[in-house]
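It is worth pausing here to work through a concrete case rather than discussing structure prediction in the abstract. The textbook approach is simple: state the sequence, then state the predicted structure, then interpret. We follow exactly that order.
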Amino acid sequence: MSEKSLSQLRKYLHDNLGLNFTKNQEKELCKKIEQAGKDFNYDNTDAFISWLLKTKLIPKQIEKLASFLTIGETYFFREVKALDYLEHNFLPELINNRRGKKQRLRIWSAGCASGEEPYSVAILLKRVIPDIKSWNISILATDINAAFLEKARTGIYTNWSFRKLSGSFKENYFTELGPNKFQINPEIRSMVTFAYQNLATDTYPSLINGTNAMDIILNRNVLIYFSNDGIKQVSNRFYNSLTKGGVFLVSPVEMSNLISPKFGIIPYLGYTIYTKGPTKVEQKGVVEWEVSDTDEIRKTPQQILNTEINKSPVKPTGIKPEKQDQVEKEQKVKNSDYESALALFNQGKFDEAENKLNNIFANREVISKQALCLLIKTKANLGKLNEALALCNKALKTNKLEPNLHFLIANIQQEKGNLAEAILSLKRVIYLDPDFPLAHFSLGNLCLKSGKDLACINHYKNALGILAKLDPDEVLKESDGLTAGRLAEIIKSIKG
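Step two, the predicted structure:
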């Protein structure tokens, strides 16, 4: 392989898969890409690289390429210190604070490989929460490698995955299918949702793919694949995906100053826990808390929404000429305030966006539909689902036929675990707007989750039919930046 090909390949993998191979890893990269090339029917590696550089890969091709370049080596209850912190420190306090109030818990295993990590978390939760059936538990597990995800969904493992555990562990949570073959029990398997995701290019946090308002994010042995800039960017987006007080867990080898400085630090038995909160300092057995500059405490403004909501801003009429300039200036201020809030939202600064939007609402007699929808999504991304739902219902009083509002309600109800209500809202969306592809896609996902395969296929087929009429680069409404082409690729990947 030529030096030019290697250089181009490294850039391609960094830009499209988020994978970083240094010069010291050239031999490893050459071996892996040669194996991948043969699977793509290329005997000449340079020719394979040339094809990669000029071809827009579909999801199945990206998944196949990733399967040669990433490692899925893991096992149950790996790196036990982090899980010990969750079981004996973080979760008991969180559960106690939410018991009888907001009994929900959201966890994301980002880079879940073959599933041992999210299943370990599910088992841990069963041990920590005796009344777990009365809780709304969401465990999202994502990976770029489709082969890993398929194995994870089956939940079948060999003794090698239990190498750090006693025999009783398998007896309690697995069913033996045959010699050296064990399947995780259905009640544990049903707690985890697996999905494809490219951390380098896909959108997060997002209400659409459920990567918002997380209490816990595990991203262990994944950041080692990223460049220095990639680590900073990805960890900053994980910070935005956490709810206040949430924690971010990486492997010990990945702890470095490259991780977003927004995180606070909690030392635990020689292990570093990253938190979306203040840094905890241990000194001679005394624990003190320091508030960092990047996580300053802000006042929460009183929510004010006493006026009715119009579909569009009111155009001034009957204004005297001498006051026209003043009216135009005020309108520009209004637009500027919304744009500022939108920019904060897009940066993942949901607290600041909420403050800005609440101030807009407090000082306006009339507010726009887009400002209201942005506030709803902001509150949902902060995990304030009841507040977001209340705003949706208030808006529906004057906008009953607005499909976007029903779609927001569907996403919020799904996060709350109210799947029947979510399905009903999605059907309303399709009734009001039959060409709303994300509604068909979401219904397909819910049917897939509940085992309704035929209905799932029909909903995916409907979505693809609508997307085929759109420009592939067109950003879909209520999609957080998802294009028509990308959604079509995702659906085709799921359908196989």
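Step three, interpretation. The chain has four domains: 3-55, 80-295, 306-382, 401-496. The first strand starts at residue 104 and ends at 110.
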